């Protein structure tokens, strides 16, 4: 990828094909030039107008003066012993004057790479087992800032990329509380003419924002849906996820039952196992009852140690929990988070260095 444009013009990153057509028409150019910019920017991942060889030189020079493609800036890069890379990315200030720093995680595997992206700087949901919650909400991200994380990670690792890219909206923030920007970004990421990531390889994780789930169900293009469950009863979930008081399990699971799954699709329920709190055999049996009659799978995530008053569950406790679910006919998998040694694992994105970066 070429160097990003550095002028102060209109940032085209995150603009849809329709928006780019309208932009070039306002410049007096034919509308098809917008489609050419869209292709160069997202399909070819060119962030420098001078490198957009499908445009005439005169238009490239004009765009250099009038517009920009400003990617998030890599402020820190931490590489884990397991190959995962945690990026601390610095963003521009918005109209309210708030710059922000977010985190993105790149996880290489034998046949693909997975990129975990943020949708907000910080988070307002306040899940008590998650370090990101200690930040509070700084601000929502724009569509360009969401797409830009994927472009930065792919560019930085381009020498070793595999054919398949997965994206998971599981970084900082609650995606469904930044709905419009998230859907706009997904429109680019999942567009075969854009970033061309398959909907089968994209997952949005929510803490359970019921109106957002209902809106997402109506989208023509959408990722897979994951629900952060983490408890086997309302009483238990209230203690660690205050959002449950607004959208309790009955409402949440009703929205899940009404969610229109595609033929190849399952709902994913994420369950962070907190030692001595929600990891008992009785918890497992209650989870089976909660998810009965749903086409679902459960990802069990042993809690990642951090500066919070919880314990990592014993390995045998995790396996017992998984076995109970499996014996009842439920698809259940244990997911060991990548990048724990560089604070890149689930629930660890706390931006300990955010103040220094700012």
Give a written overview of the molecule.
- It is a single chain.
- With 358 residues, the chain is of the alpha/beta class.
- The chain has 11 helices and 14 strands.
- Strands 3-4-5-6-9-10-11-12-13-14 form a 10-stranded mixed β-sheet, with helices on one face.
- The relative contact order is 0.12.
Spans of at least 5 consecutive residues with low confidence: 1-5, 343-349, 351-358
Give the topology string: H per helix, E per strand: EHHHEEEEEEEHEHEHEHHEHEHEH
Evaluate the radius of gyration.
21 Å
Average pLDDT number: 91
Q: What class would the helix/strand composition place it in?
A: alpha/beta
Distance between the terminal alpha carbons, to the nearest Å?
26 Å
The level of helicity is 25-40%
List the strand order in the largest sheet: 3-4-5-6-9-10-11-12-13-14
| Main β sheet profile | 10 strands, mixed
Task: List the defining traits of the structure above.
30% helix; elongated; 358 residues; two-stranded parallel ribbon; disordered C terminus; 11 helices
Short description:
With 358 residues, this protein is α/β, with parallel strands linked by helices.
Write the layout of secondary structure elements.
Blueprint: E1 10-11, H1 17-26, H2 32-43, H3 57-66, E2 67-68, E3 73-79, E4 85-91, E5 100-108, E6 112-116, E7 120-122, E8 137-140, H4 143-156, E9 164-169, H5 179-189, E10 202-206, H6 210-216, E11 224-228, H7 234-240, H8 249-258, E12 267-273, H9 281-290, E13 296-302, H10 315-327, E14 331-334, H11 354-357
Parallel strand pairs: 1-2, 6-9, 9-10, 10-11, 11-12, 12-13, 13-14
Antiparallel strand pairs: 3-4, 4-5, 5-6, 7-8
Helix pairs in contact: 1-2, 4-5, 9-10
């Amino acid at each position: 990828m070429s160097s990003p444009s550095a002028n102060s013009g209109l940032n085209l990153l995150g603009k849809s094909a329709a928006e780019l057509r309208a932009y070039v028409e306002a410049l007096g150019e034919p509308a098809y030039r917008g489609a050419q910019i869209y292709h160069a920017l997202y399909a070819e991942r060119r962030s420098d107008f001078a490198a957009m060889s499908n445009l005439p030189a005169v238009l490239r020079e004009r765009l250099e003066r009038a517009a920009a493609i400003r990617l998030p800036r890599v402020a820190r890069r931490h590489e884990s012993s397991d190959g995962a890379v945690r990026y601390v990315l610095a963003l521009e200030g918005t109209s309210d004057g708030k710059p922000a720093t977010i985190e993105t995680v790149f996880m290489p595997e034998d046949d693909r790479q997975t990129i975990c992206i943020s949708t907000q700087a910080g988070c307002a949901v306040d899940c008590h087992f998650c370090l990101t919650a200690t930040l509070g909400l700084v601000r929502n991200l724009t569509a360009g800032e969401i797409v830009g994380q994927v472009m930065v990670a792919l560019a930085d690792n381009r020498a070793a990329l595999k054919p398949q890219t997965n994206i998971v909206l599981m970084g900082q923030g609650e995606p469904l509380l930044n709905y419009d920007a998230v859907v706009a970004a997904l429109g680019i990421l999942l567009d075969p003419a854009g970033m061309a990531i398959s909907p089968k390889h994209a997952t949005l994780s929510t803490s359970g924002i019921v109106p957002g789930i209902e809106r997402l169900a109506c989208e023509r293009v959408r990722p897979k849906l994951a629900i952060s469950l983490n408890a086997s009863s309302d009483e238990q979930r209230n203690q660690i996820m205050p959002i449950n008081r607004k959208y309790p399990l009955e409402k949440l699971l009703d929205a899940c039952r009404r969610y229109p799954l595609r033929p190849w699709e399952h709902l994913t329920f994420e369950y962070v196992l907190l030692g001595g709190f929600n990891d008992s055999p009785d918890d497992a049996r209650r989870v089976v009852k909660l998810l009965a009659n749903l086409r679902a799978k459960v990802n069990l995530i042993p809690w990642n140690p951090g500066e919070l008053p919880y314990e990592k569950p014993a390995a045998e406790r995790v396996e017992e929990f998984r076995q109970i679910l499996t014996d009842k006919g439920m698809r259940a998998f244990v997911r060991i988070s990548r990048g724990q040694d560089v604070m890149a694992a689930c629930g660890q994105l706390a931006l300990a260095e955010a103040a220094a970066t700012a």
